[in-house]
Amino acid sequence: MTEIKVLEGRVAKAVEKVEKSKKTIERHQKQLDKKLIAIAKKGVDPTNLESSKRKEDGTGSDFYWDICEIECKQSDIKGATRNLKDAEQILENWNAKLNVEIEKERFIEGNAPQVIKDFLDDWKEKAYQWYVLRFDRYMALKKDLLKQVNEARIECVKTTSDYARLLDENGEVQSVYKDSLANIFPRTHMIAYLKERKLDADSVHSKLSSIADGVIMNMTTYYREEDRLAWLNKTLEADKKSKMLDLINRINSVVGSITDATGLRISEVGNLNGIIIGSKGSAKVETIGAGGYNIQCFHYRTLVKPIK
């Protein structure tokens, strides 16, 4: 689902909430009007309810509870009005975001040559595949490290006299303790044992962090692969659009509106190079790409140099 479709859905929900708030106010107002008409028929001035609420001697009037109900309904209307204002503000915010995305799409469609779109589609595909493989590598490393930590804990218990009570007659850790070795006492022995073997919490975190950036860490929050990959695709699509806007704006600032992009080519290694012509002149476009392997995701730096 595109970002525009997502925002359109949120705008639709915000519109529903605004309409619901309006209907709530309308319902409360009708109920209030009926109560005001009813109490006016009893001889009470509906414009001066507070003075009619109590008798001169301070005791409750015959209409005390009627007036309380009216005041309660007036309070309901005030609360519903505040909710409407909040709902309208939320709707305004979502509409603003939707309009920004629509304008981005229009700008890209009207100004981005196909070769630039192809270049960034290629970048997105490379990045997508890299993150999928990187995630699998991260999860495999995490599983292996957890296994090493568990094995080290068992070995610590078997070789430390203070933990002898946890062993059975064969010198093995009793099954009742195997799932709680991280919390055994004294903990100092276990912590020192793991730290010596670089399997303590800080070391494990460091090893995992060495192959995981923010994208990978966000991917770990999704249990279902379908949801995880959908989030990755959405994130990279937004990044692709941002990169496209940046590149087109930089080209426009040098050559003006693009009039001829036939001189641009995508090289065998995926770099965008060549000459681009615009309303103000021409420029040389040179892309320096790197990564795409085990160490880092494919990324690039594009230079736009005016030709004099």
Tell me the distance between the termini.
44 Å
Helix- and strand-based class?
Answer: alpha+beta
Poorly predicted regions:
none
Task: Tell me the Rg in angstroms.
Answer: 34 Å
Alpha plus pi helix count: 8
Shape assignment: flat
Report on this structure.
This protein is of the alpha+beta class. It has a domain at 3-108. 63% of the residues lie in helices and 10% in strands. The chain has helices at 3-41, 49-53, 64-111, 114-159, 187-196, 201-209, 214-219, 225-255, and strands at residues 258-260, 264-266, 272-278, 281-290, 299-307. Strands 1, 2, 3, 4 and 5 form a 5-stranded antiparallel beta sheet that branches. It is flat and about 90 Å long. The two termini are 44 Å apart.
Topology:
Blueprint: H1 3-41, H2 49-53, H3 64-111, H4 114-159, H5 187-196, H6 201-209, H7 214-219, H8 225-255, E1 258-260, E2 264-266, E3 272-278, E4 281-290, E5 299-307
Antiparallel strand pairs: 1-3, 2-3, 3-4, 4-5
Helix pairs in contact: 1-3, 3-8, 4-5, 4-8
